[in-house]
Specification:
about 15% strand, alpha/beta, globular, 11 helices, about 250 residues, Rossmann fold
């Protein structure tokens, strides 16, 4: 099995990307399943093949332990670790080649709690990767963009898995802005110029120094622009995943 964990800030489009990425694999006649790891999701744009909500109910946790919504989500996120072997069995029974995992809306519940790395290591057999989402409207600002690079580095230190970086929701920004942000990933000089032109004071100094540190970390390869609304970019994303998992060869039954 080849497993991709989709991680990003709340509102970055994880669930829609899960739906479209799975459909892209199906369009190529690849055997793929979706897994929902967000126990607090009220609705999803896809029907998960494996759903943590079948085992963990946030409302029940609130009632049983007298917790508010945030406390219940934290408790539920850790509770997944106690159910992970059963979830693993559900995943294995599908015998799918590709597993697309939709992680909790609040990324810290999965990425920055001890239970998250345990769940990632136990959820399935085989190779794994992290798809980190850069929200295009948010990342169009160089300060926010560098903040996302910092998050990518933090994710890598947590999971130590190959990363694919995706610029989501590109249909919400002008095409020239998409081209500019993608260019920041390819050419450090263009990002440095944007920082010097648009930032000032302590924000400029902090962003410049963060970027100087991040450029020494060899995890940033490419930024793939996609739109879950229009389908743009998903051919490139599935190809990038295939390169990570199989060196570019599609799985043949």
């Amino acid at each position: 099995m080849y497993t991709a964990f989709i991680v990003g800030m709340a509102g970055s489009g994880k669930s829609l990307l899960t739906q479209c990425l799975a459909q892209s694999f199906m369009d190529r006649e690849q055997d793929v399943i979706t897994v929902n790891l967000d126990p607090g999701a009220l609705t999803l744009p896809y029907s998960p093949d494996v759903d943590v909500r079948d085992r963990i109910n946030v409302t029940d946790i609130m009632d049983k332990y007298g917790l508010g919504p945030n406390g219940a989500l934290v408790y539920a996120a850790d509770l997944i670790a106690t159910e992970v072997d059963k979830i693993r069995e559900d995943v294995a029974e599908t015998k799918a080649d590709y597993v697309i995992v939709d992680t909790p809306g609040q990324m810290e519940l999965f990425a920055f709690r001890q239970s998250g790395t345990f769940i990632a290591s136990r959820l399935s057999e085989g190779s794994k990767a992290v798809i980190h989402l850069f929200d295009a409207p948010f990342s169009s600002d160089p300060f926010n963009y560098v903040s996302n690079l910092f998050l990518s580095a933090a994710l890598y230190t947590r999971f130590l898995l190959p990363q694919i970086h995706v610029l989501t929701k590109i249909d919400l920004v002008a095409p020239e802005k998409v081209e500019e942000v993608a260019g920041w990933f390819e050419e450090e000089e263009s990002l440095e110029y944007a920082i010097s032109e648009r930032l000032s004071g302590e924000t400029y100094i902090l962003t410049r120094d963060l970027l100087s540190t991040l450029t020494q970390i060899d995890i940033f390869t490419e930024l793939i622009p996609v739109s879950a609304r229009t389908g743009e970019g998903f051919v490139n994303l599935t190809a990038a995943l295939t390169r990570v998992f199989t060196g570019g060869e599609e799985v043949v039954e």
